[in-house]
Amino acid sequence: MSGLRDLDPALQAEIEKSELRPFMGVHIDLPDPVYAVTGNATIHYGGEEWSAIGGLGQIDTVGEGTDGSAVGVKATLYQVPSEFRDDIADQAVRGCLYELYVGALDPGYREVVGFKNIWKGRLDTYEIVDAGETITVTAGGESRMRDQRRPAIRRFTDWWQQRRYPGDRAFEYVSRMVEVPILWAKSKQDPVL
User: Fold this and answer.
1) pLDDT category, 167, cuts 50, 70, 90?
2) Could you give the number of structural domains in the chain?
3) Adjacent-strand bridge partners of 130
4) Which of 105, 131, 139, 160 fits 21 for a cystine, CB–CB 3.0-4.6 Å?
5) Contact 22/103 with Cβ under 8 angstroms?
6) Residues 26, 38: Cα–Cα separation, whole Å
């Protein structure tokens, strides 16, 4: 479990100052990736442009149950222009990468002083509420810890192998092999017809 003890030294130093300019960031790896930060200024970090959503967003508490069980997290973006409704609905892919970050900005609110990934999981659910000219988008994520209690159902078929490794031919003939008789060694072998 990560905590304050493994913060980037620059971020740790910024937190210990008397004045702090924090922000939270959301990254959802859709075909057209979402990089959004709280605040009023777009920032550049890690080679990406993080769009400002102002104070018009909400991120639920990140944590886990007292028994160590995983707890999902939700991020909500308010007042998204309604012209993005269809684009968001078409792109939302369950299971894509979903990350939450916390960081601090310099006094000019433009440069990132420190950045820390506080949660990493997968997109689980999304909800779009239409309010006319704007929409509200709530994206729920789940940790990989939730998979610990789910059975891993794998099919050893060509279709399953192609989903995971396109172009691999390892299971191409498995379905035909079901009907092939296997001749075990014995004193007299009868020919297969």
Assistant:
1) very high
2) 2
3) 135
4) 105
5) yes
6) 9
